[in-house]
Design brief:
binds magnesium ion; four-stranded antiparallel β-sheet; binds adenosine-5'-triphosphate; Rossmann fold; disordered C terminus
Length: about 240
């Protein structure tokens, strides 16, 4: 049976650019569902709002309108578009993971600690968290000499591996993925595909954006197409 863990209804987000006195629509009337043990992929042209939808779900962005219904294990539903910040933080620690397009990390933390942190925040033991982080870094081909170095100076591909390892270490219930393999070599991309497939069979529901259509074909159970957005010159009225 398909169990929905996330239902997005008529999600809208736009930004107001003061200099141009214009609204930039970032996503409009998006409807989608993510099911347990399945992956929903979002596709569409650049700028159509794929990253914005993920950020609205993770509440990096506050949606303008629409509902983002998260159905938890206990059967309760939370509208992430309306929930208080402390509830959002709680869910980020316990249920919802996000592998962002770019790694934003604390400058002086070493790679191993950046990766093991989500497990520690969930109450995991330090040794076990370190071991799990080391296993993932090995699997993702991150050379051991880099494990004790802060990722700030890493190459794009190395940073992406750290970002993926950090997102995957705690097996969240809902995993958001924004182009997680865009700067990886073919060998590491294959490892990530295997890893995502095995995480899926363990029960994680995923909402993903991929750079390559081939990955959508291989991994996604459902595909949602977003339409490209125009610019509305609406003057000063209206909220964001
Ligand atoms: N913080 C922001 N401030 C202003 N405009 C923004 C912001 N974030 C996104 N936008 C605008 O919203 C639109 C959608 O951007 P978004 O990054 O969601 O697109 P995307 O579909 O992920 O594109 P890509 O495929 O290139 O990653 C773009 O026109 C972008 O300029
Ligand atoms: Mg994007």
């Amino acid at each position: 049976m398909n169990t929905p863990i996330l239902t997005v209804e008529k999600l809208n987000k736009r930004f107001f650019l003061h200099e141009q006195k214009a609204f930039i629509p970032s996503c409009a009337d998006v409807d989608l569902t993510v099911f347990k043990k399945q992956m929903t992929a979002m596709v569409g042209p650049t700028g159509c709002g794929k990253s914005s939808v993920l950020k609205c779900i993770f509440r990096t962005y506050l949606p303008r309108s629409g509902r983002v219904l998260y159905h938890d294990e206990a059967g309760h539903t939370t509208d992430l578009a309306q929930a208080l910040d402390h509830r959002i933080l709680e869910l980020r620690h316990s249920d919802i993971g996000f592998v962002t397009q770019f790694l934003h990390c604390l400058p002086r933390k070493k790679a191993l600690d950046v990766v093991s942190e989500p497990l520690l925040l969930r109450g995991g033991k330090k040794e076990e968290a370190r071991d799990a982080a080391a296993d993932l870094l090995r699997l993702l081909n991150v050379p051991e000499r880099l494990w004790h170095v802060p990722p700030a100076t890493f190459s794009g591909g190395e940073k992406q591996r750290i970002n993926l390892a950090r997102g995957l270490i705690s097996s969240p219930r809902l995993l958001l993925l924004d182009e997680p393999t865009a700067s990886l070599d073919p060998d590491t991309t294959e490892r990530v595909i295997d890893l995502l497939s095995s995480i899926k069979t363990r029960g994680v529901g995923m909402l993903a954006v991929f750079h390559h259509p081939e990955l959508v074909r291989r991994l996604a159970d459902h595909v949602v197409e977003l339409k490209s957005q125009g610019t509305e010159a609406l003057g000063m009225e209206g909220n964001i």
